[in-house]
Task: structure prediction
Amino acid sequence: MKNVLKVLTTSVAAASLMTALLTGCNGKDTSPGASTAAAAAGTTAASKGAEPAKEVGFPKSLTYWVSLNPNVAATMKNYNEIAAYKEMEKITGTKVDFQHPPVGQELDQFNLMLASGKLPDVIEFGWAGAAKGPDSLIKDKQILRLNELIEQNAPNLSKVLAENPEFRKLVTTDEGNIYVMPFLLGDPILAVVNGPVLRKDWLDKLGLAVPKTLAEWETVLTAFRDKDPNGNGEKDEIPYLFSIADMDFNHLFVGAWGIGSDFYNDNGTIKYGPVEPQFKEFLATMAKWYKEGLIDQDYATTDGKLKDAKVTNNQLGALSAYPGSGISRYTSLTQVNTPGFKLVGAPYPGLQAGDKVMGQYTMPFTGIGAAITTSAKNPAEIVKWLDYKYGEEGHMLFNFGIEGESYKMENGYPKYTDLIMNNPDKLPVTQAMAKYFLASFNGPMVQDKRYIEQYFTMPEQREAQQVWSQADHSKEMPLVTLTADESSKTSSIMNDVKTYRDEMINKFIMGTEPIDNFDKFVDTIKGMGIDEAIKVRQAALDRFNQRQ
Result:
């Protein structure tokens, strides 16, 4: 991971020198914007003894299917309006027809598109959600194997992968195929973005420290319930908002028993948390908390809007949250009516003090990336166009936007301007960012840690991220790939298992199903075929571990 940071945070002067050297060595590019784009894209890794790449220009046009990010949709109709893409068109001369599926229908539209055979040139997608794995899609002649195309036409990405073998392993399938120009996290700080938070002002009022164990959490939540921390004289406090989705994402509380709520990697062995004996202990604890009023009695029907209302109405004491949409947003919304409102990130609690337990973690490659379809008539040119984002110039453009507008260089550091951080039109930071660049969401690029260093404007955000980063990430599942046969065998199994699991978790916690029936719950899941699903994922993990 350190290598890619070294490559992508070089000084402007060094980048300019490299640009001049590459241009001199590789001749001129006749496409528009050659003086900047060709240099940034480069053409070969000659210093490593590679064969000279075949010269290609940028495509004149291409069609590009991609989900419309909500922060973009708030102010724009499509990605053509993003400043970075406008600038890229000036540099490369490539006109892009962005095609955005209706919001909320992305997966359905993706499947319909593949079934129709009418494919755009590029599909940017979270490929882990595809019904068929990338190897099958390549065999079915829907998307292209990109290995050779990248070697010949993507020197910037080639350099990133060569200097970061862990990246190459993650983006390569079991059959040795690279299938996308990937979205990559350029630093571990970008991998931890969610965790438990509590009302710091309530803790201070009650003379309580941030809890570190389950027992300390129970003490804190009991005090939130009984001691009127919001000071209104009513018992309307909601100590903790439980969520199955949050539990699956960050392993909060369930991780204290050394298990996950789904598949997890226990030192090379795949396990499914809900059928492990420790899951019964987790459920028993949550059921006890629910019965005692420490968990929101309406958690199962609390959506995003209702959660917002519970926080801003000075009722909710603890929840899972993001630094931006949680800590920062709730602070700005709530301090208007509750001036002392303050949130604090808490460590993932263990059974004993000092336990290091599972927490939220995102792998450097999650499957998001731009694949080139078999409909593309000029894949080499498209690869070169996509590779622009992995070079120094493209990296700066898509992480920071337009120099002098959205950022300024200060002592070699790209600092966002007030156009982003204090938008004159009162746009939230994420929406202001989305008008200029992709760093606040994703795309075929390497995300720069200097984006998030500035996005975390509050010390509470930075401190929370540091605390959450201390969790154990060794049991996180890498992005394994299933064969078409494996997917067909287990997709229906897991759909049924998850539906039943979610239903029974709620019943156990709410007390409508006695914990004594846990063994029946396990037997039912095993009867649905969970052992087959575990076996398939074990084989996929073994293949992943054998990748070079």
